[in-house]
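Section 3.1 - Work completed
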Amino acid sequence: MTSLVAPYAMPSARGLVANHLRAGLSTGALAEQRGDWPALVEAARDLSGAAVELAALSAHELPGLTAFLDEDPWLPFRFVSVHAPTKGLEGGDRALAAALADLPPVVDTIVLHPDTLAEPEAYRALGRRAVLENMDARKSAGTTVSELEALFELLPEAGFCLDVAHVWSLDPTMALGHELLDAFRLRLTHVHVSSVTSACEHVALTAAHEALFGEVLERCVDVPWILEAV
C-alpha cells in the first residue's frame, strides 16, 4: 500500500530522542489525516514500529477509532496507546468510560486529561489501562504532585504519562518534572515529547528543548516516548 503521507524523521537526528529505541508518534500530530485511521497508522509506522498513540482528541472521533480497532487491523507496534477525547464531551464521564473500556485488548493504555474529569472514579472501569497525564499552564487541574495525588486516590490502578512540554510551560527549570517522577515514577507508562509555544500549543521538539528536557527524559528511558508534533 502506498503511504498517504511522507515519512517523518526523528528530531535532532543524533539527539537523545532519535536514539531512544522506543520512540513513536501520536496521530494527533497529523491533522490532515484525522479520522482516516488506516492512513494514520501507516504514517505512524513510517516513523517507528516501536510505539504509537492513536489520538481521538474529539469525542466524535472515538466511534471511528473503535470501529477500526474492532476490525482487528494489523498494528505493527510494540506499544499502543489511545488518547481519550478532551473536546466535544457531552455524554458524561460514565458513558465515556464505558466506551473506552470497550476498546480491544491491543490497546495498552488510555490517556486521560485530569481537567476534563468531572467524575474521575467513573474511569475505574478502565483498570490499569487508565493513565493520567500532567497538564499545562492553561489548566486548573492535574498540574502538580498534590493535584495528581488526589486523582490517583480515586483511581488507584491508574498509570502516569509525563508530558515534558507541559512541565516546561509551568516551570522552565524542569524541577517540576523531577518532582512528578519522584512521586509517580512507579506508575509511569510513557512520555509525551514535543515543544510548546507560549500559548501551550504543541510544536515539533526543538534542539534547545531536547537539551533542557534531557535530565528528565534520562529518568524515563525504559518506557516509550511519544512525539506529539513533527
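Second construct:
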Amino acid sequence: MTADLIVGLMAETVKVTLLTAAPILLVGLLVGVFVSLIQAVTQVQEITLVFVPKIVACLVTLVATLPWIIQVMIDFTTRLFQNIPMYVR
C-alpha cells in the first residue's frame, strides 16, 4: 500500500463525505440566513426562533435526499470492498 494510494483513498473519502453532507448543510445555512433576515427586519431577537425552522428544514432535506445519500454511500463502499486485494499487496 503506497502513500499515493492512501492519499487517493482519503481524498475520495473526503469527497464522498462533503457530497453527502452538502444538501443538509446548505439548507440549514439558507434557512438560518432567511430567519436571521426576518429577525433583523422585525427586530424580534429571540435566540430560540432560529433552531426550530432549521431543524425542520434539515430533517425534510434529509428525508428527501436519503435515497441518493444511501446510493452514494453504497457505491463508495462497494468500490472500497472490490479494491481490497489492491490495498493489501
